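Appendix B. One record, verbatim.
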Amino acid sequence: MKTLIVGGVAGGMSAATRLRRLDETVEIIVFERGHYVSFANCGLPYYVGGVIQDRQNLLLQTPASLAARFNLDVRVDHEVTGIDRDAKTVSVRHTQTGVETVEAYDRLILAAGATARTGITPAGLATRTLRTVDDVDHIDALLRDITGPASAVVIGAGFIGLEAVENLVHRGVAVTLVEFGAQVFGPLDVEMAAPVLDELRARGVDVRLHSTVVAAANGGVELSDGTIVPADLVIDSVGVVPDTSLASRAGLTIGASGGIEVDDTQQTNDPSIWAVGDGVEKIDAISGQGTLITMAGLANRHGRATADSIAGTPEPASPALGTAIVGVFGLTAAMVGWSEKRLVAQGRAHRVVHTHPASHATYYPGAETMSMKLLVDPESDAILGAQIIGGSGVDKRIDILATAMTGGLTASALTRLELAYAPQYGSAKDPINQLGYVAANLAAGTTRNLQWHELEAAQAAGATLVDVRTAGEFAAGSIPGAVNVPLDELRERLGELPAGTLVVHCQVGQRGHTAARILSQNGRDVLNLDGGYRTWTAGVSTLTPATFARKA
């Protein structure tokens, strides 16, 4: 039996090596149109920045090493240009010589991945994506040739764009980040993205929101607002689209999301053809619908699952959560599941929890504040998504939440997780437990909260905002229209509060919760501003509250 694999790197090579481990007799041929079949594409930006200094460390396997260890026939510089499903053959063109051949298959695995969604390419400027070894070689060579200060424009503030910015700054390059949207790092909700923007600007990055590159001009680029910014190099990181051209021409089904449609064993509508990687539609864990998630972890997992399916031991793929993380200088941003804006766009009911815990016990040196956001189904208490911004400990907590979602734990059940504790690693009430406590209080009706983007409407409807922080905190910065009654004085000053609905808040929400309990037990109609002053400040610094008005 002969298995052909179109594309290497994560999905294709995981399928090839797993299939060989399962079956020593099968003939396996891998066609890779590029010159490198197995490389650390997630490490490419860090080679540009000098964090990874040895280029050879990016090259994980070669055709020779794969032949020696796994008995794989790996053919680089070979592009598959067509599939004849009736004859069960593929047409192949050698990209260097142009020689065309035909290869028969018994089974075919498509792992073509995604291609860059390119923006404008200014004439006369060096413009690259940041997806291949050739890209980083070109960028590295160009920067080495520049004498004196270098400048670059990065188009797009997503995962690759942010990593490109960080590493160019490490390289000593002056960077302008151009983003079409209203915020950096679009997967995050706006109040969670605000610290990322602050970090970029603190590191000297010139961030231009609501902007696009329209042309090359005077040694730089012209932006849509008419300004000219200098650029020796332009990195186009506006995103990717599934590479489905080969599959589409062969008549394979393309899903509504734009990726190749597969079943839970990665099989296409042709029983002899499977597909894996960034070009393939995944099943979303929240909606159960097809979606696009371009993550190396999923590509590796699904490549392995494809080999299991071909070998006769299929294991259905789990729905995808979209767990992701990115570093931005000293900040870490992580997410899993759906964002609030996605839930709003789909009209799906949800409950929101914001907390701002320390990464570990505050009495132990080095504790760093995290901003955490949990999204919960108000009926089932199921976790719909989460986002965390901070320093140390972010990766640990997002992985716990991803595991909880996979295991079907409710938000309230987070209170019962027994997590490792020592003062240098966490707190006796871990930040995950704290999220659970807030979620459980909301589910039980012990506390009612109000989101930062709902405050303006509540005040307009007559609610009184009560700041329960100390007088010093209040004087240092407060929400317009708030009255200050410190928590420790609240019981004695109840008579000073006007009739009607009260919205209480502190810095991060904890004292606000205590104040809300005091007031509600004294017969008052009270809500706690979720996440407190810190979340409100982050939110209003980015967009107007009306942008996130909840749908009924």
